[in-house]
Amino acid sequence: MLADMEVDPTKLREIREARAYSLRELGQITGISYNTIWFIETGRRKSVHPRTVRLLAMALRVKPTDLTKKG
After folding, report:
1. Integer Cα distance of 60 and 71 in angstroms
2. Which positions ≥6 away from 21 have C-beta within 8 Å?
3. Which of 4, 18, 30, 35 has a CA between 20 and 30 Å from the CA of residue 51?
4. Where are the domains of the chain?
5. Which residues pair with 5 in a beta bridge?
6. In b/e form, how buried is each residue of 32-50, taking b as 16+ CB within 10 angstroms?
7. What phi and psi, each to the nearest 5 degrees, are found at residue 63?
């Protein structure tokens, strides 16, 4: 079983906004709910499944590690 990852909410928001995606648009592209993305961006959801991180990274055209907090 894969361990959950910790996404940096500020990085996610900055990259999403740089790509000019709204939360809803990113949700439609990835299949991840608006609420889930909002919870991640606001820091209310600390751990995120690796598959979710991969989907966000693919949609935003970055590496998954670009969205995570550095140790």
Report:
1. 22
2. 29, 59, 60
3. 18
4. 5-66
5. 48
6. beeebbeebbeeebeebee
7. -80, 150
What mean pLDDT comes out for the span 18-43? Answer: 97
Instruction: Just give the CATH number of 5-66.
Output: 1.10.260.40
Question: The pTM is what?
Answer: 0.92
Phi and psi based region of residue 7 (left: phi greater than 0; alpha: psi -120 to 50; beta: remaining)? beta
Q: Is 53's pLDDT higher than 60?
A: yes
How many residues comprise the chain? 71
34 and 27 Cβ atoms separated by less than 8 Å: yes
8 Å CB contact between 48 and 7: yes
Beta strands 5-6 and 47-48 are antiparallel
Residue 1: pLDDT band with limits 50, 70, 90: low
